[in-house]
Design brief:
This protein is mostly helical and 283 residues long. The chain has helices at residues 2-21, 27-32, 43-52, 55-64, 67-95, 110-126, 135-160, 173-187, 194-203, 207-226, 237-268, 271-282. The chain is globular.
Length: 283
């Protein structure tokens, strides 16, 4: 948990110094970069660190709970905080009412991350590596649901001139369906190739920073200055579907490349060892 906080401070300070040097932020913003928790732009870090405090309780509960009750809890989470939430959100916009689902906030909260952890625990406990014959089905579900979503979005934009984002939020049924199908797909793959294991082991520790970098840098600076995604409005939905994947992959590798040097700096200054002693002192 402390190590994640160090990563958040590193990038918060790094980007703030750049912006301060260009006279785009004030001194107060520079000071706040040392305190990344509680800032809206670092919602992912906030959610992750807050979730860590509940993990001891959740892990013990997962080890004790039976499959039937666990399945009911997961289903209720999906029904109330995804399907029901989406219906409420869609009609509230039309009826001009306020929602009381602020603790969900379209999935940008620690509460939703905790739900995802619980769902992931269910998959890990009861759906470990088995026959991979269903893998093609899971992959098709993912691709079809993604394509249908992009088609619907373009239909609503072109006909009603409105971008219906209820199917883009983290807790929308379409996104959850895509996430679950991918989770089940990869969960049933057993990797024995030592070279592939090394590649995965290299990228895995860098994944957390990808979210921080691309939300803090790419979408706030590059997109606004270069209009990176402006031209895609003229594309057909099917072509956009594949174009978005290409852009996402490029962003992922650029962010990973940046974080690789952050990892080298942390290794030189033994940040992980420092974090270990801090956690030992605090917990």
């Amino acid at each position: 948990m402390i190590y994640l906080w160090f990563i958040a401070v590193f990038y918060s300070l790094f980007f703030s110094i750049i912006l301060y040097y260009k006279s785009k932020i004030k001194k107060a913003d520079l000071i706040l970069s040392f305190f990344p928790l509680g800032l809206k732009r670092n919602w992912y870090v906030n959610g992750y660190i807050f979730m860590y405090y509940f993990l001891p309780f959740v892990k013990n509960s997962i080890s004790l709970i039976n499959k039937r009750l666990y399945g009911k809890i997961v289903f209720h989470f999906f029904f109330i905080y995804s399907i029901y939430y989406t219906i409420i959100k869609y009609n509230i916009k039309k009826a001009n009412f306020n929602s009381n689902f602020n603790f969900i906030n379209e999935g940008y909260t620690s509460f939703w991350l905790l739900i995802l952890y619980i769902v992931g625990g269910y998959i890990g406990k009861f759906y470990t590596y088995k026959n991979i014959k269903f893998n093609i089905i899971y992959l098709l579900i993912y691709l079809i649901s993604s394509l249908i979503t992009s088609e619907y979005l373009f239909y609503s934009i072109r006909k009603y001139k409105v971008k219906n984002e209820i199917f883009l939020s983290y807790n929308s049924p379409t996104v959850i369906l895509q996430a679950l199908s991918l989770a089940l797909f990869f969960n049933r793959i057993k990797i024995n190739n030592k070279y592939l294991i090394k590649v995965i082991s290299f990228f895995y520790p860098l994944n957390f920073s990808v979210n921080i970098i691309h939300t803090r840098f790419f979408f706030s600076k590059i997109q606004s200055s270069l209009n990176l995604f402006k031209y895609i409005k003229s594309l057909t939905p099917s072509y956009l579907f594949f174009k978005i994947y290409g852009i996402s992959i490029v962003i992922y590798f650029i962010c990973t490349f940046i974080d690789y040097f952050r990892a080298l700096v942390f290794k030189i200054f033994r940040i992980r060892t420092i974090c270990f002693y801090i956690e030992k002192l605090l917990f």
